[in-house]
Amino acid sequence: MASVERLLKHYGHGPWCFGDAPTLADVVLVPQVANALRMGCPLERFERAMAVCAHASTHPAFAQAAPARQPDYAT
């Protein structure tokens, strides 16, 4: 995750990983962060990655794809 954070800080700009629109990088990052959080991994120090994920959660496609929104989601 530290390597991802370095790349995001160096190359990233805008609300998404690499600009003003979602890319495959965002599609890959969001579930990885969600799973890490679900497993209790401390991610507070990865500010840029967490900001991207927070922004993604406001996008309709990402919100609809969230695990908790799926019919087979088990708590």
Automatic annotation (TrEMBL):
Residues 1-75 form the GST C-terminal domain. PANTHER family: MALEYLACETOACETATE ISOMERASE. This is Glutathione s-transferase protein (Partial sequence c terminus). It comes from Ralstonia solanacearum IPO1609.
